[in-house]
């Protein structure tokens, strides 16, 4: 992926599901116009999910994911089915591929039920229609297609596009908090942990959202902030900082200037902020030996003073005076049984590499099991005594801290 590509977390995830040999891989190749997935008459050819980023008009950027057959058998087959279920948890729109020549199966019905249980919008592609002698009238959610001949592939794309959520349904990162011509100051540390030659994704996305709001983004390092604020000649509407330098930035920003962090903004963007503010108060009850899960949505090379595995545990120990046990997950790894594992608290990153559905799934799993969940930026601000100030742009959340 180039630096100018839309990140996968911002793409609509379209999962392609069905039983073995229904033609899922062939259909993915037909939709993309590229031979991406291996096609074979041998059952179980697709053993791992195959992903393809593309532009699908009129939706825009999407991520197509071809999954293993849902009727796979045996020990390895069960693992492949688990991979398909893992993709379902991330799916915004599902495409159920049914072999029209053989008709529906029990696994097709089970998939359709799972789509409904998980509130996933879906369409049913009756593939291999070129092999039919006659065609029964399709249901409203069904469409006859042929990956072999290309019949109705264009109509299938339109059907998928009709299921996409409206852009009006998406939250903004910061654009709804500012007005045209506002100044927004972004504090971006450049240290050994910073990626070479670029900004990290939340910083890039925030700058883009500021520009789309017709405001101005002023980007500085933490040691340049005080002088920059003095020389602006105009009070900034907002200061946004990397959470790791929250304390220093708070000291340098005048009390009448709103302050928050990239991580807090990303938590709101992903739907986790309200739960994070409620969950962070669980720190008050942390004791020696309690288990705390620290989870990151990306995988990266960890530096010697890594925020997830080093700094956060250090801040938690310092604030609580306790010696809890820490466990860590990254990327797609996130335990299903949080309560059974005995976690006192889940601390999650902003989730910039996870799509909205996966981030909300993790939050709801914690809530359903009664395990408090919070966010990196919220926890850092809370332990440093500046969470109220960091939430000043979200007044409705301040009451949560008083309860």
Short note summarizing the structure:
By secondary structure, the protein is an alpha/beta fold. It has 14 helices and 14 strands.
The total of helices stands at 14
Report the C-alpha radius of gyration, rounded: 24 Å
Shape: globular
Estimate the strand proportion: 15-25%
Total count of strands: 14
Strand order of the largest sheet: 2-3-1-4-5-6
Could you give the order of the helices and strands? EHEEHEHEEHEHEHEHEHHEHEEHEHHH
What keyword list fits this structure?
403 residues, Rossmann fold, 6-stranded mixed β-sheet, 4-stranded parallel β-sheet, 33% helix
Describe what this molecule looks like in 3D:
- By secondary structure, the protein is of the alpha/beta class.
- It folds into 3 domains: 161 residues, Rossmann fold (3-Layer(aba) Sandwich); 91 residues, Rossmann fold (3-Layer(aba) Sandwich), CATH 3.40.50.11420; 130 residues, Rossmann fold (3-Layer(aba) Sandwich).
- It is built from 14 helices and 14 strands.
- The strands form 3 sheets. Strands 2-3-1-4-5-6 form a 6-stranded mixed beta sheet, sandwiched between helices.
- Helix 7 links the parallel strand 9 and strand 10.
- The longest helix is centred in the first third of the chain and has 15 residues.
- The two termini are 45 Å apart.
């Amino acid at each position: 992926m180039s630096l100018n590509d839309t990140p996968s977390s911002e793409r609509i995830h379209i999962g392609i599901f069905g039983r073995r040999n229904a033609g899922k891989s062939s259909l993915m190749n037909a939709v993309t116009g590229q031979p991406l997935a291996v096609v074979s008459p041998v059952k179980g050819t697709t053993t791992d999910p195959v992903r393809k980023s593309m532009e699908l008009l009129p939706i825009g950027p999407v991520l197509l994911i071809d999954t293993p057959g849902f009727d796979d058998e045996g020990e390895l087959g069960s693992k492949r089915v688990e991979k398909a279920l893992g993709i379902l948890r991330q799916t915004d729109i599902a495409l159920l591929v049914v072999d029209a020549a053989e008709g529906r199966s029990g696994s097709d019905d089970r998939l359709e039920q799972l789509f409904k249980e998980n509130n996933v919008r879906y369409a049913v592609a009756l593939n291999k229609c070129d092999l039919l002698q006659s065609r029964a009238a399709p249901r409203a959610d069904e469409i006859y297609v042929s990956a072999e001949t290309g019949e109705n592939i264009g109509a299938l794309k339109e059907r998928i596009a009709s299921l996409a959520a409206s852009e009006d349904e998406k939250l903004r990162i910061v654009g709804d908090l500012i007005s045209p011509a506002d100044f927004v100051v972004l504090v971006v540390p450049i240290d050994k942990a910073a990626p070479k030659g670029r900004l990290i994704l939340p910083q890039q996305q925030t700058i883009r959202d500021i520009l789309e709001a017709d405001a101005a983004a002023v980007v500085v390092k933490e040691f340049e902030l005080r002088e920059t604020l003095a020389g602006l000649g105009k009070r900034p509407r907002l200061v946004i900082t990397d959470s790791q330098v929250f304390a220093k930035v708070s000291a340098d920003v005048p009390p009448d200037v709103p302050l928050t962090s990239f991580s807090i903004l990303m938590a709101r963007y992903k739907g986790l902020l309200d739960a994070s503010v409620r969950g962070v108060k669980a720190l008050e009850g942390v004791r020696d030996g309690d288990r705390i899960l620290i989870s990151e949505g990306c995988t990266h090379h960890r530096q010697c003073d890594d925020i997830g595995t080093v700094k956060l545990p250090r801040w938690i120990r310092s604030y609580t005076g306790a010696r809890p046990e820490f466990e860590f997950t990254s990327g797609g790894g996130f335990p299903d049984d949080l309560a059974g594992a005995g976690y006192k608290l889940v601390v999650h990153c902003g989730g910039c590499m996870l799509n909205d559905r996966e981030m909300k799934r993790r939050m709801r799993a914690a809530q359903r099991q009664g395990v408090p969940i919070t966010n990196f930026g919220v926890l850092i601000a809370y332990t440093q005594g500046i969470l109220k100030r960091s939430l000043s742009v979200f007044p409705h959340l301040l009451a949560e801290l008083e309860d």
